[in-house]
Specification:
disulfide bond, binds 2-acetamido-2-deoxy-beta-D-glucopyranose, glycoprotein, about 400 residues, 3 helices, Neuraminidase, signal, 6-blade_b-propeller_TolB-like, metal-binding
Length: about 400
């Protein structure tokens, strides 16, 4: 009964919202509060139906190993004032990562935005006549002052989304308009790997549909979050051969717009910003063995999490950012301990966040960066030990 009512409400709201597909600019509408409420009901309903057995797994803090108890006091992100020191003239900053020289690398959309006219009902990009973005979309910044050190990626992309720099400085990007993900070797203009078909959305394993994000393991395995329409993750070997689809039909996991990825290799988990389910869920990554393949995902879901847009790993912890969800939920950063399935800290810059979209941690653990799509900007945070009581 409850389900039926929720579904009917939901259909009406989706119809009222135009194409009814999630995009980033659909906030601040008059019907937003209502829409959010319906989504919340829907996700509660779904949560009860599908996730209850997983959440009932005993994972009390007192059974946690000693080193996760220490994680009760994680380092706190503190916004670096006056960083970047110069105006960068950015479009929507959809992606951020950090290269091997510990420099932040950002992916932005220049003048292009994602709104309700960008795609039609069948997920086809409607603005290909504009051509690719002419400006450089990938900028490498100086970590100290935020000055632009390098520019790349003009005349290649239509609607940038995720960016990941791996430890060999290969650039992995997704373009939601092209429905593709790419691997570029440093400086090269031709991708060495291409996933999905150009401007051709699809749901078989040769196609992607508005892919959001890529994670690359030290073993070379590749995870692509696909994305806004298919709500799945594809796992490939280093050569681009498909290994697995997450969730597999037997897996007790249902994703709803997987929007960001973070690997924690030490515990063999792939943490997913499961955006419209308003949670972070960490299924087995399956990097080193198939042992534990059947173990349920670690799932972090709390009433105040909101729609989780980005995740980044630091040690065994995950730093995440949510985005506007409802008037009652602050837009903020969350520090998460996946092993105890708990949120252990909340944080935000004094000025507050607008629309955080992606987050990255510096490989040496000293800083993290948050990219926003309105106001368009990039934040640097230093990670400082918590104040003693
Ligand atoms: C980490 O990298 C940043 C950026 O290059 C640097 O300023 C900082 O000193 C490094 N910290 C450590 C602990 O190595
Ligand atoms: C969406 O656009 C594509 C190409 O622009 C077109 O082939 C397709 O028929 C359109 N779908 C609908 C439902 O209009």
């Amino acid at each position: 009964m409850v389900t039926a009512v929720v579904v009917v409400l939901c259909l009406c709201v989706f119809a009222a919202a135009g194409h009814g597909q999630p995009y980033e600019g659909d906030l601040g509408r008059a019907d937003k509060a209502f829409y959010d409420e319906v989504r919340q009901l829907l996700s509660l309903d779904r949560g009860l139906a599908q996730d209850a057995p997983i959440r009932e797994q005993p994972r009390a803090a007192d059974t946690a190993p000693a080193d996760t108890a220490a994680a009760d006091k994680p380092d706190v992100p503190k916004a670096v004032k006056n960083w970047p020191q110069e105006a960068l003239n950015l479009g929507q900053v959809s992606g951020v990562s950090v290269n091997s020289a510990l420099q932040p690398v950002i992916f932005h959309r220049a003048e292009r935005v994602w709104d309700e006219y960008t795609f039609n009902e069948t997920h086809h990009y409607q603005q290909s006549h504009l051509g690719p973005i002419r400006e450089h979309t990938v900028l490498t910044l100086d970590p100290q002052r935020g000055k632009v050190l390098g520019k790349w990626g003009a005349d290649l992309f239509y609607l940038p989304h995720g960016l990941t720099v791996d430890r060999h400085d290969n650039l992995w990007v997704t373009d939601v308009a092209l429905h593709q993900a790419f691997k570029f070797k440093p400086g090269e203009l031709q991708p060495t790997l291409t996933f999905g078909h150009r401007f051709d959305p699809g749901s078989d394993t040769k196609h992607l549909c508005k892919p959001t994000s890529v994670a690359v393991a030290t073993t070379g395995e590749i995870f692509i979050a696909d994305g806004y329409c298919n709500s799945r993750i594809l796992k490939f070997n280093a050569a681009g051969g498909l290994l697995r689809v997450i969730p597999s039909p037997s897996e007790f996991l249902s994703l709803q717009v997987p929007h960001g990825l973070a690997l924690i290799e030490s515990i063999d988990r792939l943490c997913v910003a499961d955006r419209e389910n308003r949670r972070v869920t960490c299924p087995r990554a399956g990097l080193y063995s198939i042992q534990g393949k059947k173990e349920p995902a670690l799932t972090i879901q709390q009433p105040d999490m909101g729609r989780v847009f980005g995740v980044a790993a630091r040690g065994n912890l995950v730093y995440a950012v949510n985005g506007p969800t409802s008037a009652l939920l602050p837009v903020q950063g969350l520090t998460i301990d996946p092993q105890t399935e708990s949120v252990i800290d909340h944080w935000a810059p004094e000025e507050g966040f607008g629309n955080p979209h992606a987050i990255a941690v510096c490989p040496n653990g000293s800083a993290l960066y948050v990219a926003e799509i309105g106001p368009n900007r990039i934040w640097k945070f230093e990670l400082v030990p918590p104040k003693k009581k």
